[in-house]
Amino acid sequence: MLKVKAKAKINLYLDVLYKRADGYHEVKMVMQSVDLADIIELVPVSEGISVFSDLPYLPNDERNLAYRAAVLLQEKYNVDQGVRIYLEKRIPVAAGLAGGSTDAAAVLMALNKLWKLNLPLSELEQLAAELGSDVPFCLYGGTALAEGRGELITPLPSLGKFWTVIATPSFSVSTAEVYRSLDLGRLKEKKDLAEMIRGLERDKPDLIVKNLYNALETVTAERYEEINLLKASALEEGALAALMSGSGPSVFALAPSKSVAQAIFRRWKRMEKKVFVTTTG
Predict the structure, then answer these.
(1) How far apart are CA 215 and CA 67, in angstroms?
(2) Is 134 a residue of the active site?
(3) pLDDT tens sequence across 194-240
(4) In the chain, which segments carry CATH 3.30.70.890?
(5) Is 189's pLDDT higher than 90?
(6) Is the pLDDT confidence value at 40 over 90?
(7) What are the angstrom distances between the C-alpha of 70 and each of 7, 83, 156, 243?
(8) Active site residue 9
(9) What are phi and psi of 254, to 5 degrees?
(10) CB 34 within 8 A of CB 74
(11) In the chain, where does DSSP find H-type helix?
(12) Is the pTM of this model over 0.85?
């Protein structure tokens, strides 16, 4: 039996450059893992792959990325063993926090050990890209630049520890629909990615915070006023910055101290049910 953590991610920077011939969008993102995490338990069995979760509505078949990750490894490397996977979900589902992608990445890493495949990270990364655009980053964690459709990963110097508050509104959004609705011509006032990376390299948090950016806010935040209200209220409580993560609807706030993070938590808790205090890492 093996028990592992699967960390959520936030986007410190998300720019959409153009739509590619294959239908995907070319992006540039700075992705950051946080300590909010699902707990995954893997139990070896003689045959078959099964997935169980503490969320009754979570699919346990090929619609579940953790299941697909296990099947992919088993079929590609002719593994004659099976596995029973238990997901303790702490990361909100379909919330812009890579909850499914991080589970898939954790399953790839764990089964590589459990099934003694000894695959290098570079090979796991190729498999991860087959499963989804966010899965390769979730193999690495930490702080990283993601390019292509999100699957080309370059590790960056660590952001370090920031107290982080995350709120997930009760409505859901479709990532595909957000990208379909994105008007690239409206993305005029972009922040400076190069300056953000210099801030990471030189350990200058002010350069990082001032350049937080998410192009997808032009779609999701305009449709749902809750996102702007969450951001504004966090700043009123002393947040360094607040931003939507991914295609939403989750919003995160970076706080200068634990006490400010707790103040944001209390404020947001009056607005939304799902609010978490965590740290970057």
Answers:
(1) 31
(2) yes
(3) 999 999 999 999 999 999 999 999 999 999 999 999 999 999 999 99
(4) 163-279
(5) no
(6) yes
(7) 18, 8, 29, 33
(8) yes
(9) -95, 130
(10) no
(11) 65-76, 99-114, 121-131, 135-140, 175-181, 193-202, 205-209, 217-223, 225-236, 258-269
(12) yes
CB 80 within 8 A of CB 122: no
Candidates 15, 38, 103, 134; catalytic one: 134
Q: Across the chain, what does the average pLDDT equal?
A: 96
What span, in angstroms and rounded, lies between the C-alpha atoms of 70 and 108?
7
**Catalytically annotated residue among 9, 15, 28, 103:** 9
Residue 253 tokens, joined = 């706030």
In this prediction, residues 145-161 reach a mean pLDDT of 97
β-strands 49-53, 25-45 pairing = unpaired
Q: Is CATH 3.30.70.890 the classification given to domain 163-279? A: yes
Q: Which CATH architecture has domain 2-155?
A: 2-Layer Sandwich (3.30)
How far lies 105's CA from each of 44, 133, 176, in Å? 18, 11, 21
pLDDT for 64-108, tens place per residue?
Answer: 999 999 999 999 999 999 999 999 999 999 999 999 999 999 999
Confidence grade of residue 188 (pLDDT, cut at 50, 70, 90): confident
